[in-house]
Design a protein that fits this description.
Number of strands: 0
Structural class: mainly alpha
Number of helices: 2
Shape: elongated
Helix content: over 70%
Distance between the termini: 17 Å
């Protein structure tokens, strides 16, 4: 997967987490926020090395 696809995937997870938070699904939104943060950190660390 190239970096554009990784960025789009991370952004979609973050936006869907926001919609989940607004609709009251706190467990799902927390999971989506965590996975977005983890994938963002993985993307940053793989670009640096």
């Amino acid at each position: 997967m190239n970096t554009l696809n990784k960025d789009i995937f991370t952004g979609l997870m973050f936006v869907s987490g926001l919609f989940g938070f607004i609709s009251g699904e706190f467990i799902i939104s927390s999971t989506l926020f965590a996975s977005a943060a983890i994938s963002s950190n993985i993307n940053l660390n793989s670009n640096q090395s």
